[in-house]
Design brief:
single chain; 956 residues; alpha+beta; Cytochrome Bc1 Complex, Chain A, domain 1; 4 domains; seven-stranded mixed sheet; 34 helices; zinc; hydrolase; protease; signal
Length: 956
């Protein structure tokens, strides 16, 4: 997995804007002593840190709230350690490290951790690489075995064949993330022009495919030897551990790994531009014009980075933000605008990005950006704006340490990039210390009148929309050639040198099976028929709650699809007593978050708040629910933004497959065959009166449930809801009746042409049963070994064995009306036929090849996986929502464990025979017709039916 920067890494892994902005300071923290214990404070994570003789920095954090353990290993090596002509190596080694090592068999890392009931992944960004796992505590020593073998005994397994095989997987990832996506090349274009050729940020993290293809075994081994020693890494172990025992195990498994070469620290290397650079590109997959202005700024740990982070929010976030005011509200050039600072280890950049409405000239948008900046210079901003940014920090901090894995991420990243896990304290202090004058000074120093790199990415054939005078960006598109890649089949018997160790590094046994205790759930129904369910969870001073209103898109009229979606957006745009701006301020001052989202079968209002602000946050939710403003101007803006998004979706192969796949699955006459957000035709016809009528007819406590988890008991919750109980009158909601018909004939293959696609999206599906069916759990269990993760057959076959894809999965699309079994993958274009053949065949033979061992593995996975399902407030809310949505008993989790233990192999196979029939599945391919369509004729599905991007047959 590629991550574009340390900030992206932290944002993706921790989901905490506080920590994202907080990894910077003007001062480097003091390095702790050889061994130290740090006590907890209101803004700290207790830990013990020490260093092994080989230089590995080890941090231990004990958290016994759940029977799980997380490991995070950060190596201080990313793409910035590479050199021109030899790029992509760090990301490549992230991939290789999951394959095998001297004592861990090929594919076992991806396969075994999932089968142990755990989860694992990794990421690479400019400055570092991380590997992380979470497992039930009985598998803790197995994890130490796997991780230590990867750290110390992996490189000998990197043979010529292994190198060639993994190159294909990395290429697939690049095609999926960059080449086959709208605006995918933008980041690479900006980096190559913002930074000099020899600057470590000049090239993308994923690197050049040409460099990677030309890489020799000697090249990659030399890079590995230089940067992957234990002395260039931090290992964090967090969770239900015994500190003394863990130290013994760490010494056993990691202690004798050889120390690596000394790795010099990276010195800051910020850049300046002597002129503004304007570049353009006609994007094959983009449907809307996009402009970005990227200014060079400062490195992480620099004091100005804090003010730049705040500046980004002030310029673009919220109704008062100047970019929003000018571009969105006044000139109506785009549905939104963003501005953000990204400071990395040696340099930083500040970006202003606007994806404009269809057909909009980017010269107009550029002028509007300049006007917005002039407005900022003239009007400034209030102390209240700055305080709202800071008010979110405490809530975000607690959310950012709500799981042991998030704690591990924090401890590892601060230690490796700031010198100490304690650096969190200084970050928070620095964020709080940002003043208005700091923000204005940062703007004047880095933005006002400064040069920048500007990109104009426009749809193919619409070059006239680019900013006038822009030069071609010179994007090189990969040519997909049939049969170009050599087929490489790896086996675990390959001969490679074995390192002599002081003890046999055999797989250790499992520890004592952890006790699984499902959370206690309470339920109560109010007088207005609103059902309330809760779980008290006192680990952090947080409360999260959702109000789920049954219906959503299902209650849309087909010809007005998108009404529920627009209503969900409009409910956050003011109330009868508050303008949109005033509502935003009221939420912001509490440091809370409130959102409204529409799905296929529900509208959900979600809130996250500190315990002390629960009552005030609930009062705002009540106001949003019962007193919508229905502002006509906001309605028109939301509608236009939605239409813009729907237009952009037409250039995304994944989105096309998702939309048309559901249409094929449910049929064009079923509401679930239409996207939740509607289509351009249906949304264009929606009026504000339609939205009001939907609200009037369908928002009722009789079809709703309130779910709450956190530091609050049942009595307090019920007391807090008295006002809502009295004010929200019950009403009857009319429910439409749609018939669904599963495919009972032969499978049909459909094809949608996306010219020049570098990958083909493959999708298959069949209808199964209503979501509340007693067969649901059985199908989930039966599907596990087929496609439910990296340890399952499809992933192992299509990625590990063949190298055709970045990932391949099957899953159950659970819907109350009718669920479906789905399969999906994206493969390189020139193996479309081969991949589809393998996919359909694997489904066909699954039942007959499902063994007793598969059966036992599945049972173990499902039982052990529950150790990770009650850790965060979000996961607890999911439990509550399943109970109310599918009318499950409060103790359904315990019942499921009993039911699973009583199932037999025969039960599994009966489920497979009933719901996993390849001749009842329809198949969809979204890819390049010129090179792939004809090849699909002899797969046994008959001649493919060619559809357009809306799912309509293409007449010949």
């Amino acid at each position: 997995m590629k991550l574009s920067s340390s900030k992206t890494f932290i944002a993706a892994a921790i989901s905490s804007a506080l920590l994202l902005g907080a990894c910077q300071s003007s001062k480097t923290a003091k390095t702790p002593a050889k061994e130290e214990a740090v006590e907890a404070s209101s803004f700290s994570i207790p830990y013990e840190k020490y260093t092994l003789d080989n230089g590995l920095k080890v941090i231990l954090h004990q958290d016994k709230s759940d029977p799980i353990v997380a490991l995070a290993t950060v190596f201080h090596v990313g793409s910035s350690r590479e050199e021109p002509g030899k790029t992509g190596f760090a990301h490549f080694f992230e991939h290789m490290a999951f394959n095998n090592s001297e004592n861990v068999p090929l594919g076992a890392n991806r396969k075994m951790i999932g089968e142990l009931g755990g989860t694992r992944n990794g990421g690479t960004w400019n400055d570092g690489t991380i590997y992380y796992e979470v497992v039930p505590k009985d598998a803790f020593e197995k994890l130490l075995w796997i991780d230590s073998d990867r750290m110390g005994y992996m490189i000998n397994t990197v043979t010529k064949d292994a190198l060639e095989r993994e190159k294909q997987v990395v290429k697939n990832e690049k095609r999926q993330r960059v080449d086959n996506r709208p605006y995918g090349h933008t980041g690479g274009v900006i980096s190559s022009h913002l930074y000099p050729d020899d600057h470590p940020y000049n090239w993308s993290v994923i690197g050049s495919l040409e460099d990677l293809q030309n890489a020799t075994l000697e090249d990659v081994k030399k890079f590995y030897a230089k940067y992957y020693g234990p002395n260039n890494a931090t290992l964090v172990i967090a969770g239900d551990i015994d500190i003394a025992e863990t130290k013994t195990l760490v010494e056993k498994w990691f202690g004798e790994i050889d120390k690596g070469q000394p790795v010099p620290a990276m010195k800051p290397r910020p850049v300046t531009l002597d002129k503004t650079i304007s570049l353009s590109h006609e994007d094959t997959f983009a449907k809307l014009p996009e402009i970005r202005l990227t200014f060079p700024t400062v490195e992480q740990y620099h004091e100005d980075s804090y003010a730049l982070d705040a500046l980004g929010e002030i310029l673009s976030d919220g109704k008062r933000a100047p970019l929003y005011k000018v571009i969105v509200e006044e000139q109506k050039l785009a549905p939104g605008a963003s501005a953000y600072n990204s400071s990395r280890e040696i340099a930083g950049e500040f970006t202003i990005r606007v994806r404009a409405n269809s057909g909009t000239d980017l010269d107009q948008v550029k002028d509007a950006i300049e006007q917005a900046l002039a407005k900022f210079e003239q009007d400034g901003f209030s102390e209240k704006d700055l305080q709202q940014i800071k008010a979110r920090q405490e809530t975000q901090f607690y959310n950012g340490i709500s799981s042991v894995l998030n704690k591990a991420f924090n401890l590892a990243s601060y230690n490796e990039f700031a010198g100490s896990p304690d650096f969190l304290q200084k970050d928070i202090e620095a964020i709080k210390a940002v003043s208005k004058s700091d923000v204005i000074a940062a703007y004047n120093q880095y933005i006002k009148g400064k040069n920048y790199v500007m990109t104009s990415f426009v749809p193919k054939g619409q070059a006239d929309l680019a900013v006038e005078g822009a030069t071609d960006a010179g994007v090189k598109e990969e040519k997909i050639v049939q049969g170009a890649e050599k087929e490489v089949v790896l086996n675990d018997n390959e001969d490679f040198p074995r390192t002599e160790t002081s003890f046999p590094r055999h797989e250790p046994p499992l520890g004592k099976t952890p006790l699984l205790t499902p959370p206690a759930v309470w339920s109560q129904t109010l007088e207005n028929n609103l059902r309330v369910l809760g779980i008290e969870h006192n680990e952090l001073p947080l409360v999260q709650f959702t109000l789920r209103i049954e219906g959503g898109h299902y209650l849309d009229k087909p010809e007005k699809s998108g009404v529920a979606y627009i209503l969900s957006e409009l409910m956050m745009e003011g109330t009868e007593g508050k303008t949109a701006e005033e509502l935003e301020d009221a939420i912001g001052i509490l440091g809370a978050s409130i959102s409204v989202d529409a799905g296929d079968e529900e509208i959900v209002i979600s809130a996250n708040t500190l315990k002390r602000n629960y009552d005030e946050t609930l009062a705002l939710v009540k106001e949003v629910l019962l007193e919508p403003r229905f502002d006509p101007a906001e309605f028109e803006r939301i509608k236009k933004r939605l239409l813009t998004g729907l237009k952009q979706r037409e250039g995304d192969a994944q989105a096309i497959a998702s939309v048309v796949g559901k249409k094929l699955l449910y049929g064009e006459d079923h509401i679930l065959g239409i996207p939740t957000s509607g289509t351009i035709d249906t949304v264009s016809s929606i009026t504000l009166d339609d939205v009001k009528a939907y609200y009037r007819n369908n928002i009722s406590p009789t079809v709703s449930a309130f779910h709450v988890a956190g530091d609050i008991d049942q009595g307090a919750v019920i007391n807090s809801l008295h006002g809502l109980e009295q004010a929200w009158a019950k009403k009857t909601v009319a429910w439409p009746d749609y018939s669904v018909k599963a495919n009972d004939g032969d499978s049909q293959l459909y094809f949608i042409d996306v010219p020049d696609a570098k990958q083909s999206v493959l999708m298959a599906g069949q209808l199964t049963f209503p979501g509340a069916s007693e067969d649901y759990n059985n199908l989930v269990y039966a599907n596990d070994r087929l496609g439910a993760g990296s340890s399952a057959r499809l992933f192992q076959l299509l990625r590990i064995q063949k190298g055709y894809t970045y990932g391949a999965y099957t899953y159950i699309l659970r819907r109350e009306a009718m669920s479906a079994l789905m399969a999906q993958t994206s493969v390189r274009a020139n193996v479309t036929k081969e991949s589809l053949d393998l996919l359909s065949n694997e489904i066909e033979v699954y039942k007959d090849t499902f063994t007793k061992e598969d059966f036992e593995t599945t049972k173990n996975i499902v039982i052990k996986r529950q150790t990770r399902e009650f850790e965060t407030l979000g996961s607890l809310l999911s439990v509550l929502q399943d109970i109310s949505r599918f009318d499950l008993p409060l103790d359904y989790l315990a019942n499921e464990q009993k039911e699973l233990s009583n199932l037999t192999l025969s039960d599994f196979k009966q489920t497979m025979a009933k719901y996993m029939s390849p001749n009842k599945m329809d198949y969809l391919v979204v890819g390049d017709a010129d090179t792939q369509l004809e090849r699909l004729n002899d797969l046994g599905f008959g001649e493919p039916v060619v559809l357009d991007i809306k799912g309509n047959p293409v007449s010949e």
